[in-house]
Structures are given as C-alpha cells and as structure tokens.
TrEMBL record:
Residues 60-158 form the Terpene synthase N-terminal domain. This is (-)-alpha-terpineol synthase. GO terms for molecular function: terpene synthase activity. It comes from Vitis vinifera. It holds the Pfam family Terpene_synth. Keywords: Magnesium. PANTHER family: OS04G0344100 PROTEIN-RELATED, TERPENE SYNTHASE 10. It comes from the Eukaryota. GO terms for biological process: terpenoid biosynthetic process.
Length: 161
C-alpha cells in the first residue's frame, strides 16, 4: 500500500503558466502546461474607446485665469498666515490631528509642512503614553496612527486600544 504513494507523488505535477506573445498585433495568450500536454487560452481585454477631446491643446493654453496677480497673491499669503496661526493656537492633540487631516483632505497641507512636522514630532514623542484624549477613543487612536504612518513615523500596529 505505501509503495504506491511515492509513484503517485512523482506523477502529479504543478501547472506552469507562461505568457506567450509571438506577435505584438495578436491578443495576449496564456499557455498552460500540465505534464506533457499544453493548452492555450486567449485573454479578452476591454478597450476604452474614449472620444477625442473637444478643446485642443492650443485652446487650453490660451485660457486666462482671473486668480493670478498681485491681489490674489497677497490674499493667498494672508490666508496662509491665518492657517499658520490656527496651527499654533490649537493645543489639544486631537484637535491638532483633525486640523492636519482637514488640510490634507483639502490638498493644501504642503503649504504648512514645517508646522505639521513640528506638531507630529510632539505627538510622536508622547505616543506610548496613556493620554486621556485617546483613552478608549478608537477614532482618536486611528487618526493618530494613520497620520503618523502617512508622514513616515515608525508606529507599531499591535498597540492595544
């Protein structure tokens, strides 16, 4: 009985999958080899069939924006100063993390990278302490974990909540 088991094991083989593309114009094929027999299957790929753009490149380049100039630049600098003071005034760690999250979601966080880095350094230095603001608060713990990980801090994933 046990003598036949090794013969069964030696005759079973794992399938080998190889991609074959003999011609670039032909659709991609998968060649499946089991033992000495081969089988080829054609992969059907979807095409996008996008319509051509309505406006050509020169037309898009000729468009002007009303938000360029000295007045808009001044207003932008003023708003940046307001947000920087907001980042400096917020003291609660959860409020700081929420403000950083909002700035990221708005896509303007790159204007405040230095301030965000300072805040996250302080939060990371106190990461292992059992603070009241994140005790039994899954939202606060998850937000802290995600933001620290996104900004490259080494935060272990196995910390108990």
């Amino acid at each position: 009985m046990f003598a036949s088991i090794p013969s069964l094991i030696t005759h079973t083989r794992q399938p080998i999958i190889r991609k074959s593309s003999s011609c670039k114009a032909s659709p991609p094929r998968i060649k499946l080899m089991i033992g000495n027999s081969t089988c080829e299957e054609i992969i059907a790929r979807r095409t996008a069939n996008y319509h051509p753009p309505i406006l050509d490149y020169d037309c898009v380049q000729s468009l002007r924006s009303d938000y360029v100039g000295e007045t808009c630049t001044r207003r932008l600098d003023e708003l940046k100063r307001v947000v920087k003071t907001m980042l400096g005034k917020v003291r609660k760690p959860l409020d700081q993390l929420e403000l950083i999250d909002v700035l990221q979601r708005l896509g303007i966080y790159y204007h405040f990278e230095d301030e965000i880095r300072e805040i996250l350094n302080i939060i990371y230095s106190e990461y292992n302490s059992q603070d009241e603001w994140k005790n039994e608060d899954l939202y606060a713990t998850a937000l802290e974990f995600r933001l620290l990980r996104q900004h490259g801090y080494d935060v272990p994933q196995g910390v108990a909540v």
